[in-house]
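Before relying on records like the one below, remember that each one covers exactly one chain. Contacts with other chains, cofactors or solvent are not represented anywhere in the record.
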Amino acid sequence: MTTQTPEQLYAELYDNTVPDWDGEIDFYREFTRDVKAKGQSVLEVACGTGRVTLQLAKEGVNIVGTDLDEEILKVARKKSEGMANVRWERGDMRMFDLGQEFGLIISPGHSFQFMCTPEDQVKALENFKRHLAPGGTLVIHLDHQSVDWLGDLTRNLGGKFERGKEVIHPRTGNTVRKEYAWTYERSTQTAAVTLKWEEVDRDGVVLQTWQREPMQLHCVFRFEMEHLLARVGFEERTVYGDFFKNALGEDSSEMIWVVRKP
């Protein structure tokens, strides 16, 4: 049996554990088609295994996907073999330098929330802006957290492991059980999730177990994001509560910002 690191396992299971949000791909396609008509390219920041990148590439637009995780990118490269309009680059969203401008930059799946300090947030936004063509569009998808849930994490739920979705390992065919535990630090608005997995055979025998180091995500609130975008010079700003362009409201679980470079 081949022993995997937690990072390798996470990459292999990514496609089975991170689904599309309702309306998400059509939302991005609308912007992608406009960019293609102008002869421009698309950049996806924190692209993962290409969940969004590859679906947009089917529109015929040239698209680049960047991610900091090399294991994730290995999966993405394998999935895109033979696709001439897709390119992958390893890079930190705060400092990658791709040497080109894009008509559309997207940051899906709450990935901007890996920027956990004001300094990192501003560095990332300034880098996005540098890579945008004049008049280009930036889309950032954030989680619109429930304050009740965050409050519970500071009390009885914090650090308690819960059972997640079971998936089938793509190579071994065995069942992989997932558990996760969240914590929240009010003083920094930082949530952290610890993931554990165990692979079991058909007889229920545990074959391997993994635990990943906690991943930290900053809980961004609406007016905090508005101030950050204004600070970097994005003057034309729109925020939605879902991918169907409904207004951000009390019951919205998502927060989607669409901004344009002057």
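Residues 147-217 form one domain.
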